[in-house]
Amino acid sequence: MSLPQVVPHHIAIVMDGNGRWATRRFLPRLAGHKQGVDSLRRCARTCVQRGVAVLTVFAFSSENWNRPADEVSGLMELLAMALSREVPQLKKDGVRLYFVGERSALSQKVRDGLAQAEAATADNTRLVLNVCFNYGGRWDIAQAAASLMARGEPITEVSLHGAMGMAHVPDPDLVIRTGGEMRISNFLLWQAAYSELFFSDRLWPDFDEAALDEAIAAFSGRQRRFGKTSEQILSAHPDPMPG
Question: What is the pTM of this model?
């Protein structure tokens, strides 16, 4: 008798491979990023259908400023376009948007767009979609510590966690990286301490519903111990179910 599948409450994804997807098709790299937006739309819809409550994606890292200037400017334009095109549908689908990252380096137009998108979807409850943009895990820890120091508050694990950009959601249960690379690249360094990791060879534009289901199935088959022994987990859950 098969056990019921355990669906992660919170999935986080490093969306890697857009540029390589385009290069293999002799297209400009920005074409891959545009295709990646379509893949994100599909992934968010599938998460809603599968019962995932939180989806967090790594859209633009603090290190991505080192890419060619035309690619960076193209990504900023793509963000603005995606906001105007996608937000009405996300609002209709019940998706609440949060943008996590350092906003001071972004243009006023982009900052205004992010704030408007968050406000437009603030009442939605079906899925929380965190878009990490101009984000880095080390930045998040440093800014949280600086914020606590500025307020004269003690720095503890609890207070530091509460001052981070992802304090509004539980830590991710499953972190997925596409594109064949096996690293987390400064993504959710604090929050992913006990996350299950899943690496996919598929480039992000090719990451479809079946690929997401494969990752969820792999997660469902794992035993999450959080420092305990297998015997302790089994004694707490007499039925041998993962999770």
Answer: 0.89
Interacting residues of 136 by C-beta distance below 8 A, sequence separation 6+: 61, 62, 63, 186
Q: What are phi and psi of 95, to 5 degrees?
A: -95, 130
Tokens of 1: 């008798």
Please state, in angstroms and rounded to a whole number, the distance separating the CA atoms of residues 197 and 176. Answer: 6
Mark the ranges of the chain whose per-residue pLDDT is less than 70. Answer: 1-4, 224-243
Q: Residue 217 is which amino acid?
A: A
Q: Are 115 and 133 in contact (CB under 8 A)?
A: no
What CA–CA distance (Å, rounded) separates 60 from 122? 22
pLDDT (tens digit per residue) in 53-91:
999 999 988 888 888 888 888 888 888 888 888 999 999
The Cα–Cα gap between 159 and 110 comes to 30
Catalytic residues: 16, 64
Answer for the pair 103, 111: CB distance below 8 angstroms, yes or no.
Answer: yes
Range 109-113, long-range pairs (CB < 8 A, 24+ positions): 109/80, 110/76, 110/79, 110/80, 113/79, 113/80, 113/83, 113/84
pLDDT score at 1:
41
